[in-house]
Model the fold of this input.
Amino acid sequence: MKSKILGCLVLLNAALLAAAMMRVTRANEARAMSRAPDYLAIPSKVPTSSNGVVYVVDTTNHLLTTVSYDSGAVQKMKTWPTIDLDAIFNPPGNSGAGDNRRP
Done:
């Protein structure tokens, strides 16, 4: 009876030691860093309107949107649909290698 208990304790200690070693000697894996997106705001004037616009570029996710402010309207802030810049500058079928300039 004592030898069975001693054998179980030895196996339990071996399992705990193996679990501790696996945790300490974990594989060196690369992890992507998550970071907040960077924004670039470009103020501009539209010739056909007295209101200014701001082009907002999300440089991390490659998105572009436009925002304008109209002090006379009920809805003062107007936004346009977001444009995916990857779809424009890297169309399907373009590997991204080589000279991508238009002729």
